[in-house]
Structures are given as C-alpha cells and as structure tokens.
C-alpha cells in the first residue's frame, strides 16, 4: 500500500481534531501520551485507502478518549458520548463502503482490529476505575484479537481470505458497545451499574463463544471450498 492524497487529508483532519482535544483543558489524560497515539494512528492511516476505511479508523483514534475518560473520576459521561460516536462509525462504515463500491477484504479485516483497539482501551480504563472486572475486559479484547490473529496467520500462508461480518460477530460487537458503554453511562449518571455488569459477565462471554464457533464453522467451509494450497 502507498499513501494517497485522500488518506493523507483524512489523517491531517484527524490529527488536527485529536491534538486540539488532547491539549484542551477539559480532557483528563496526559496530553503528550494521547498526542503520540493520535499521531501514530494518523501515520498508519495515511497508507489506508478508501473513505469507508477512514471512517472505520475513527474508532482507533477514539481509543485514546475512551481510555482516559474511563479511568478518570467523572469521565463516564464523556465516555458514553465517545462510545456513541464509535458506535455510529461502526454503523455507517459498511454502508459507505457499499455505496462507494469500496468493499474489500482489507476493510473487512480492519474492522475487527479497530473494534478490538477501541473496546480494549475502554475495557482497560473501566477495569482501572473498578467498574468492571479485568477478566471481562480480557474476554472483550479476545473477541477481536483471536479472529484477527487467525486471519493474519492465514494471510501469511499466502492464501486469500474474504473477510466478512458474521451475524454473531455483529451482534457481539453491538452487545459489547451497549453493555460496556452502558456501564460507563450509568456511572456517569451516578447510578449503580451492578446489575448491568452482572448481565455483561454472562452475555459477553456467551456472545464471544458464539462468535468463535460461527467463525470456526465459516473457516471450515472456506477450507473445504479452497482445498489444499
């Protein structure tokens, strides 16, 4: 891949917006650390083609606000807004890809990676804040890391992989955002999220296992269809 004008322009917009937020007086995170993350993502994003992929990449940028707001006392309200914006990008990036004829295997693979980065950052922050247990955050991260790792291994074997969203995967992502984001919202409203956390401790692992099973079956069908290398 090579840098394109559109991708560079998108990176510049993200950097300007991100640095303006990072160095504002209202955000609770360390400005230099947050700025470094934003610049790093922008450097990678300059080489990622497609409008839809740039929208998807927004969730990687939003990982920084998700982390610092989740850890900060009183940051749960802004975190809920961050989750809402991330959820919106997750809803529209696929639509944009289809309407601009930008659907690709790369975009399909990028989606779970940035979802894992965003939800992982939020989960770690909420764990530090004592809002959710560490094991639940790790399960949420594994939901994205393991499929992405499996896809990378297959691609390293020089096999073409047609990354597609599965129904269970889409449901799992929605549940992660709603449940973990809901914990943040309740904390922001000074309400006890205990019952929601209990629900998340049941629903998220079940949805994760269902996603893994569905992906395993899909890979098995793919392996039979492609045959030996």
Structure, described:
With 229 residues, the chain is mainly alpha-helical. The chain has one domain: CDP-alcohol phosphotransferase transmembrane (TM) domain (Four Helix Bundle (Hemerythrin (Met), subunit A)), CATH 1.20.120.1760. Helices cover 78% and strands 0% of the residues. The protein contains nine helices and no strands. Helix 2 runs antiparallel to helix 3. It is flat and about 50 Å long.
Any descriptors?
229 residues; mainly alpha; 78% helix; Four Helix Bundle (Hemerythrin (Met), subunit A)
The helix count comes to 9
The termini sit apart by: 25 Å
- Write the element-wise H/E pattern from the N-terminal end onward: HHHHHHHHH
Which oligomeric state applies? single chain
The main sheet comes to:
none
Helix content: over 70%
Share of residues in strands: under 5%
Q: Please name the CATH architecture.
A: Up-down Bundle
Superfamily (CATH H level) name? CDP-alcohol phosphotransferase transmembrane (TM) domain
Silhouette: flat
Instruction: Count the E strands.
Output: 0
> What is the CATH T-level topology?
Four Helix Bundle (Hemerythrin (Met), subunit A)
Segments where pLDDT lies below 50 for 5+ residues? none
Task: Tell me, rounded to a whole number, the average pLDDT.
Answer: 85
Q: Class in CATH?
A: Mainly Alpha
* Class computed from helices, strands and strand pairing: mainly alpha
Number of domains: 1
What does the radius of gyration come to?
18 Å
